[in-house]
Please model this.
Amino acid sequence: MLVTERVELLKKGRKGRYVARFRANGMITTKSLRAANLEVARKRARVIDGQFACGTYGRAGPSQEAADDVPVKQYLHAKHHAEKRRPKTIGKYADTLDAFEAWCPMPATRREPSRFALSSPICPLARLAMMILWWSIA
Model:
């Protein structure tokens, strides 16, 4: 069954798991979607199609360090532009966030509760806010 013009779903195996079949780099590729539920499989197939549309399928993503800096930069940018904070105040915010990061004994993927893992589709600013709230009540 065709999900999008690039990705096709097939049911395979004894457990009835769905796989996505698509053409990548001139070769037909089959990737397990690890789902027996059709709706879940369709969502995962659409993610693959979205990666094709953006041109990011099969490429390595940004390093974890770069991914951890993005929410901080977005937070500081929002404070500066949306709330019209002065550069001196933004510098103090940056120092506070740096001290917070230095205080945390573990990398970002270990600091957060599992339900707020990096793979969840939560925007980075919300993730940063949840991380700060989680540490403030812990």
User: Anything to note?
Assistant: The CA atoms of residues 110 and 117 lie 9 Å apart. The mean pLDDT is 76.
